[in-house]
Protein 1
Amino acid sequence: MKIMTMADVESTYIWDHYQPGMFRGLDLIISCGDLNPRFLTFVETFANIPLLYVHGNHDEKYKLIPPEGCECIDDTLYIHNGIRILGLGGSMRYRPGAFQYTEQEMIKRVKKLRRKIKRAGGIDILVTHAPMLGFHDGTDPCHMGFAVFESLLREYQPKYFLHGHMHMNYGEKTPRISKFEETTVINAYRSYTFDYETPPKP
């Protein structure tokens, strides 16, 4: 199954230079946040396949302009063709506003999902906006990751962890692909397509 993941910066290749057939072969699209809702609507309209998303810290506009035809998976366990996908959007709280959380608030969000995860027998893909603390994250309050994500990875060992928030032009600390134990970690910046059955190598 081919998945395209996106985050943070709209791909001009897709939006400004769309060609029929551009999304051929894709089975699922996942947005990790901070994308224009109209961009998501555009992609969903022409791809005509499921598009899932979590909120980024700059996505307050989604309340007024929700992405049409797309499925928000924040705070839920979404199952697609048997693949269990857990969504936890938002960033570390650094200013007043929506889609920002303290570590304790994120822990409470995870706790509320534990029963669903147990019933499903675990998770296959963790989708977030922010990265994990100490892994792909930054040192400033805005770009620090969440420690509870590491707990999720260690406990459930999902096949993939997809996140956004860390633009790849920030420097060497923001690689596209890394490995954390048995989980392939993908920075979804702009867009990246991969084969679910064959994880890309760092």
Note: The chain has one domain: 2-195.
Protein 2
Amino acid sequence: MLAPPVRCLLDTPGLILWLTGAGVSAESGIPTFRGKEGYWQVGSRNYQPEEMATWAAFQEMPEEVWAWYLYRRGICRGAEPNAAHRALAAAERRRGERFLLVTQNVDGLHLRAGNTLDRTYQIHGNIDFMRCSRECLPAPVPMPEGVDVAWGKGRPITERELQALKCPSCGALARPHVLWFDESYDEANFRFESSIDAAQRASLVVVVGTTGATSLPMHIGTIAAQRGIPMVVINPEPNPFSALVQRTGQGAFLCGTAGQWVPEIVDALPSA
């Protein structure tokens, strides 16, 4: 049950910025792919996710990179939104323009649960979209119908599917719409400036299921701490965000899972 001080934090007329990470989707059965599930064999070598998820790897072995991403997409499409996803969709309906979701997750489950693109910044992309590898298009496009999502691990990409993964404008091979390890955030693809602006306007930040291993989420937390606005941090273990709360004395750390706390927080939110 939410303690009265936490309920007081939620009673804000301003913008509430929600920041979500892999811990939200873990409860839908999606692995983080940092463990053995993420390894991909090419010939006799096992590649780790940090090696496959790069522009350099795509330039060297684009078919293998696509095969790995389509395997990942099959897992994501086989998962369903959980209680935390559904609660966040309800929070958007309740709060309207006073709600904003910044998510690191590429699985698309927030959108499938009912959150809108206008109020959801997918700062690491979405595995259900692709974009031209030559950047000839101004925006990502949905994955084509001709691409199978029921992939077994290690299954090679077919010629038919490779042809479907072409840019509809120039015919170049498309690439997954995700932020790779050797790339930087930008506004056009990943809403970098918009996310920073939201952090500078928010009256409350709620951080759910992320350890802050990437730079933009931690930047958002740091901005909140510097501005002196509270953060509510939900995670099974203490993390850099809960350390910020402890240092500033602004906010609360709720030890537990997204499914445990997010629906309760949303139920306690005042309407816009």
Note: The chain has two domains: 4-30+81-124+184-268, 40-78+141-178.
Protein 3
Amino acid sequence: MKKALIIYGGWDGHEPEQTSALLAGHLQQRGMEVARTDKLEVLADAAKLKELDLIIPHWTMGQLTGEQETNLVAAIESGVGLGGVHGGMGDAFRGNTAYQFMVGGQFVAHPDNHKDYTVNLFAQSGDPVIAGLDDFKVHSEQYYMHVDPGNQVLATTIFHSQSAPWVNGTVMPVVWKRRHGRGRVFYQSIGHNTKEFGIPEVLEITLRGLLWAARQ
């Protein structure tokens, strides 16, 4: 049985405890053993991290120590998967650039705050993370991110902003996959709170992406 660890905490507005519990439950239903912790100290045990199949950070903002960052990155480079959503992974550990390099992107803004927008899937890619799904609409923060051009992008959104009109027309990645060392990395920028996982496409893409990262 594949083993996953969810590390949750940071800013409470992203409902880290509730969202981590929701994801854990769904992953368990799909045959994965899942542990959760709200302590970053778990990252001090480099050997135990490498015994996992998947690590899910759900910790908005915050800071990793040098040892914690080194151990986490080393685990992924050794072949452990990394996956997550929204600010829990894409706006985590703002001062840790090795972590950001591994994720493949970093949140910088959400013009207009919560708004309606469309997510466009790269259906022609045939990728199993999005196979059989169609474009869908979301009411959430539309994340403007600095992203790695090496990401394998699976979905995008187009910005139409009142508060930041200079970004209008920008095509921004929403879902991507990548490799870091021997590890698989998955990220999607939706999931401000548990309610957003009630959108079937959001939940399904998230679970498929996490399972892909864990090689399941």
Note: The chain has a mean pLDDT of 98.
Protein 4
Amino acid sequence: MDRIDLFRIFARVVECSSFTRAADTLGMPRSSVSAAVLELEGRLGARLLHRTTRKVSTTQDGAAFYERCLGLIGDVEEAESLFRQTATPTGTLRIDVPGRIGRLIIAPSLPEFLDAHPGIDIHLGVTDRAVNLVEEGVDCVLRVGPLTDSGLIARPIGELPLINVASPAYLERHGVPETPDELSAHWAVNYASPSSGRVEAWEWIEDGVLRCIPVRGRVTVNSAEAYIACCLAGLGLIQIPAYDVKRHLEASELVEVMAGQRAAPMRMTLLYSHRQHLSRRLQVFGDWLEKLLKHELL
């Protein structure tokens, strides 16, 4: 096996902490991955990995060699990409995006991208959970909000505006709040983070400062669909990305309130690993996605 291929396989095993997961992401038999690492250890004359039934971890030599591997792999991929920048991008791109953005914005627009780039195929994952790029073989993910990932390249894509809305039935019953000071007399549909379970406070920007207060609510949900459905049912006020309720606003099923006291917009970021940063297909997809989201969401 080619030496750089051995390096790539070893690096993937380290990142996945598993021969099986590495084999799955590489599309190789597990036995071939294991044999490649053994061959590499034989060439180097050093043990690179501690192997147990549950997990694979690097030895001291393995950790040092892994860091060197990343640099060598990057150098090779940079050299290979020198003449690709003007070439037609080809190959399969595995991406993962938040649920409603994927369903409402990206999926309906994909024919445009695929027509423009006939050499690229898309594996589209649509989920609101935090995807591990390396372990799950994903090339890039779109994240909305604060980032917790380390060791990944982050490409800012734009910001997602949030608005305050309520149903006409709710406003007829409880009145229209004009400022956040009036929220003590109102109800909200509470949103609990699916990952942490923490209930989000009501937020707004005042004189350039982010302010927040809890607003009473009798219903707590953990999905955007339920959040909007409860608001439509008149159960309280919500703060929501504007694109999420665009058609409900156009149909007068929901009404924006406190337009001058919106929450801070949420950052949108495309994340990918260092080994993907020179991928031509990833570059063209990122450019297309940024343009699409700015057009559709801003």
Note: The chain has nine helices and 14 strands.
